[in-house]
Amino acid sequence: MLASGASLLPVNPTLGVLLAVLLMAAAGTAALFRLAPDSGSGRSRQIVTAGLRAGLQLAVVSALITWVIHHAAATVAFVLLMFAVAVRTAGRRITTDGTWWKTAAPIAAGVVPVVGALLLTGLVPVKGIVLIPITGILIGGALTATVLAGRRALDELELRHGEVEAGMALGLLDQEARLEVARPAASDALLPGLDQTRTVGLVTLPGAFVGMLLGGADPLEAGAVQLFVLIALIAIQAVAVAVTVELVTRDQLHRPARGSGGTPASTTTATVRRDRLGASVKAVLTRRRPRPPSPR
Predict the structure, then answer these.
(1) CA 126 → CA 103, 129, 228, 233, distances in Å?
(2) Closest to 168 (Cα-Cα) out of 286, 285, 274
(3) Which whole number is the average pLDDT over 232-254?
(4) Which of 95, 105, 160, 194 maximizes the CB count within 10 A of its CB?
(5) Which tens digits make up the pLDDT trace of 191-210?
(6) Distance of alpha carbon 126 from alpha carbon 170, whole angstroms
(7) What pLDDT digit, counting tens, does each position of 250-260 carry?
């Protein structure tokens, strides 16, 4: 007989102590090796905060989930809450200006069609006990891909702005020049999902697979569900990355310009680039060529 979920990890004081030790070890490592953008202690504080928030949020969800899954309206509201939190998290990880809410587009573009197809085909019933965990997994995958793609694309555009200007000087449109720089970097956001899919069963046994086994499901059925989750995540993340790149290269998702007092980059970056390029072209065209010496 398959093991029950209660025997997997007992909930007792020993578990609480171990969790606290692991959390402090993670925070201490980040602080000791200065694993932060500014070589400070910001990441260690974020690790502690994330761990405490996870504990509080899971406690609340555990208390509410039994009631939520038996009410259709509550199920829909819970799914929308997950989506809203994902948008907020992704947006604030990518930018600090007012364009953060546009991360709703890449997350929704990937998740909504897949969840809609599952419901329309009847593969997933309209029940909270099934819909909430599957939708949560898909939203989480889209969130990760959006954050990685957005940050990598914006970082690369900032570091290689000279190449963008060079592309424009060669006749490329602004978006085309930005695409040449941002797209290869943003595509790295697909690597975690690809690696997870390629190594499933060999390196890791994902949660959906293990959870179904512990719940008494047939191993073949559990494997089929896990395969669907992995393939669906690849599709969702590919769409999320593509939409994120479009938003970034169209200057719809950006960061505040440095030294602008919070002024969005969309109001300054493009203008500065055009003025700089125009000045360079004008200087070349108006530069007088030396006249050849007149024959005597």
Answers:
(1) 27, 9, 18, 20
(2) 274
(3) 96
(4) 95
(5) 999 999 999 988 877 777 88
(6) 54
(7) 999 999 876 54
